[in-house]
Amino acid sequence: MLPILITYILSISLSNALPFFNSSLPNPESVVHHFHRRLSDSTRRLQSTPQSNCLTGNPIDDCWRCDPNWSNNRQRLADCGIGFGRGALGGKGGRIYVVTDSSDRDAVNPTPGTLRHAVIQDEPLWIVFASSMRIRLKQELLVNSFKTIDGRGSEVHIAGGPCITLQYVSHVIIHGVRVYDCVPGGEADVRSSPTHFGWRTKSDGDGISIYGGRDIWIDHVSLSHCADGLIDAIMGSTAITISNSYFSHHDEVMLLGHSDDYLPDTAMQVTIAFNRFGEGLVQRMPRCRLGYIHVVNNDYTEWEMYAIGGSANPTINSQGNRYTAPGDNNAKEVTKRVDTEEGDWGGWNWRTEGDVMVNGAFFVPSGEGLALRYAKAASVDPKSAGLVDQLTGFAGAWGQPRGNTLNAVSNGGGDGGGGSGTGGYLGMVFGGSGYSESTRLYVSPIHWRKVIGLDDLLNDHYEEKIRLEEKEAKKRRQKRYDSDEDDDRARDGKEALLSRFVADCQKQAKKSIAF
C-alpha cells in the first residue's frame, strides 16, 4: 500500500515538471476492445474477398492501403491506428507540407521546404516528400507536436547523422521512412519551434528517441545500424504503438524506460505489433523496466542474446508471436530478467499465450497470470501465430528490400539531392529498382500468386537460366554427348526449375526467401 501511495503523491508533485506523466490511457479496456474489433473486421474483409490482391488481415494496412486513391486521402492513416498509440492524431486536420529540399544546413534557422523546417512548426502538419531523398541531419531532428512524417510514395532515408527526437511532445506519427547509421549530435543550438531554440548536450545516437512523449505511433519504419538504440522511450513516455516496422543489424534494439527507479515509468503503456525483428540483432526487443508492454503478432527471426528482457517488474503480455531461436544452444531462451535473481522476479507478470516457439526457443513465464493484471497490458485475443507471415509480410518502409537499408538511395545527402523511383504497387513492395539477387523478400507463401504474381515472377527470374541450359544442351550435343538425355533436360528444364522453386517455397515458408 505504501508504494502505491508514494507513487500517487509523486504523480501530483511532478505534474507541472512532467506534463505528460499522467498520460496512461484512462480506460485500457477500450483499447483492448478496439484492437480486437479492428482485427476481427480485417479478417472478415479478407475472408469475404478471396480474390483480393491487397487484403492481408493486417488491420492497419487493410484500413488504408486497398484504397487505390489513398494518396489523395493520406490523412485517413490517422484513423487506422491500434493499441495504446491509437489516439495519435499526427497532423490530421492540418495542411499538407511538401518537403522539397533534402538539405539541413542550419539547425537554428532551417530553410523552408526542408524536413527540419516542417517539423518545428506549431500548427498540425501532414508532412510528405516531393521525391525520394536521403537526408543527413546536422543535429537531432526535434519534432513538434501534431506532426505526421509520411514517407509513402517516396524512398525517404534519414541516415548518416543525428536522427529523430520526440521530447515532451504528443500526437506524432512517423510512417514509411528508413532510419539508419544514426550518430550522436549535440553541443550546439537546435531549434524546436518557431519561437524557441536552445543548447543541446550530446545525444545518444538513437534512431528514434521518445523522451516524455505520449500518443506516439511509429509504423512501417525500417531501422538499423545506430550508435545507441533503434527506438528508446524513456522519462514517462506512454500511449505508444510501434507497428509494422523492420529492425535489423543492431545490438540494443529497443529500450522502454531508462532507470529502474524512475517511478513515472510505472504508467508506461506500449503496444508492439506486426513487426519483424530480422537479421543481425542481439538483444532488447524490447528491454523493459516498468509499465505495461503488449507484444503481439511479431516475427522474431534472430537474436544472439535474448529477445525480451526486463528488470523492474514490468508487465509483459506476449501473444501470437513467432520466436525462432538461434543455433547457439546457450541463447534459446526468449526472455531475460536483467541483473535480477529468480527470488526477486518470480512474482513478475510475464506470460506467453499462443506464441510459436521454433528451433528450441522457450519463454520463461512468471507471476500469477491473472487476466485482470494483464488488462492494462492490452490483453486481447490476437491473431493466430500461424498468420504471422501474412501479418508481417510487408513490415518496414514500403519498397524496402529486407536486409539492404544502405544501398537503395545513394544520392542526396546533407546539401540536397535524391532521386525518384518508379511508382505503382510493385514499386511500393520492391522499390524503384525492382528486385535483384541481393534482395531478400519476406512474404507469406499463400500470398505469392495473389500479391506479387508468382507465375510472372518465376518466368522473369528463370527465363535466363532456362535459355542458358538449352544453350548448354546444344553444346553437349555438338560434343556427341547423349542427345536423348540432353533433349529431355532442355524440354523439361523449365518445369523442373519451377517445381524445385515451389518446393523451396514450401520448405522455407517460415524463413526469408532469398532470390
Give your account of this protein's structure:
With 515 residues, the protein is an alpha/beta fold. The protein folds into two domains: 19-392, Pectate Lyase C-like (3 Solenoid); 424-514, no CATH class. It is 23% helix and 24% strand. It has eleven helices and 33 strands. The strands form six sheets. Strands 1-2-5-8-13-16-20-24-27-30 form a ten-stranded parallel β-sheet. Strand 10 (188-193) and strand 11 (196-200) form a beta hairpin. The longest helix is centred in the last third of the chain and has 25 residues, at 454-478. The N and C termini lie far apart (59 Å).
Question: Which SSEs are present, and which pair or pack?
Answer:
Elements: H1 2-13, H2 28-48, H3 59-64, E1 95-99, H4 115-119, E2 125-129, E3 133-135, E4 141-142, E5 147-150, E6 156-159, E7 164-167, E8 170-175, E9 178-180, E10 188-193, E11 196-200, E12 208-211, E13 214-219, E14 222-224, E15 231-234, E16 238-243, E17 246-248, E18 250-252, E19 254-256, E20 269-273, E21 276-277, E22 281-283, E23 287-288, E24 292-296, E25 299-300, E26 308-310, E27 315-319, E28 322-324, E29 335-337, H5 342-345, E30 350-353, E31 356-358, H6 371-374, H7 388-392, H8 424-430, E32 440-441, H9 448-452, H10 454-478, H11 483-507, E33 513-514
Parallel strand pairs: 1-2, 2-5, 3-6, 4-7, 5-8, 6-9, 7-12, 8-13, 9-14, 12-15, 13-16, 14-17, 15-19, 16-20, 17-21, 18-22, 19-23, 20-24, 21-25, 23-26, 24-27, 25-28, 26-29, 27-30, 28-31
Antiparallel strand pairs: 10-11, 32-33
